[in-house]
Amino acid sequence: MTDFTLHDETTAPDASKPLLAKSQAAFGMVPGLHAVMAEAPGLLDAYQRVHELFLNSSFDKDELTVVWQTVNVENACHYCVPAHTGIAKSMGVDDAITDALRDGTPLPNARLEALRDFTLKLVRQHGNVAEADVQAFLDAGFTKRNILEVILGYSQKVMSNYTNHLAETPVDQPFQKFAWSPADKAA
Fold first, then answer.
1. Which of 10, 60, 90, 134 is the most buried (most CB within 10 A)?
2. C-alpha distances in Å from residue 57, one per residue of 50, 53, 61, 116, 161
């Protein structure tokens, strides 16, 4: 496996140094994912921007978590599943939601289940979602805006999941207690 550098403020390319400072300010540390992405300043910048855009979407904290973790679990991301478990806890998301997403078991309500189902269809079908599936999502109370915001969240996760697969990014210490592997997934 190719060895990727976990950059810090002394080793990062100059264009990544302010981005790492931004990560430090936001998280109280430089997450390993950001340290890897710093090798390509454009990737880290894009990731941070898309993250902010998705956080400011019309989704609430539970819905953000459903999109993030659905993609993380589907893509079997050893880093993002535990990281987003910790993030969900910090956001006050009910553990029942997080556990259902990690384990592939039913979510606590039909609306969140519809969001997970639509997100999975989008990922698995590479955006070629059948009209009946789009309508089912809309019938669950979501909007056309939400369809496009799922794409936004998925875009963020492609950047992180794929980086973590290639770099085998070590899980940050605060998230190690939430370790996860695809074998943990029930479905």
1. 134
2. 10, 6, 10, 17, 21
The alpha-helical segments, DSSP class H, found in 5-79 are 17-27, 32-37, 41-55, 61-74
pLDDT digits (tens, 9 = 90+) for 18-49: 999 999 999 999 999 999 999 999 999 999 99
Q: Name the token pair of 125.
A: 């079908």
Structure tokens at 138: 């809309």
CB–CB of 43/50 below 8 Å? no
Locus of tokens 């976990």: 6
Q: Coil, strand, or helix at residue 48?
A: helix
First to last CA, the chain: 29
Question: What is the gyration radius of the CA atoms in the chain, in angstroms?
Answer: 16
**Distance separating alpha carbons of residues 157 and 73, to the nearest angstrom:** 11
Of 66, 155, 162, 51, give the one whose Cα is nearest residue 107: 66
Summarised one tens digit per residue, pLDDT across range 59-96 is: 999 999 999 999 999 999 999 999 999 999 999 999 99
The reply to whether the predicted model has a pTM over 0.90 is yes
Q: Is the dihedral of CA 47, 52, 58, 60 positive or negative?
A: positive
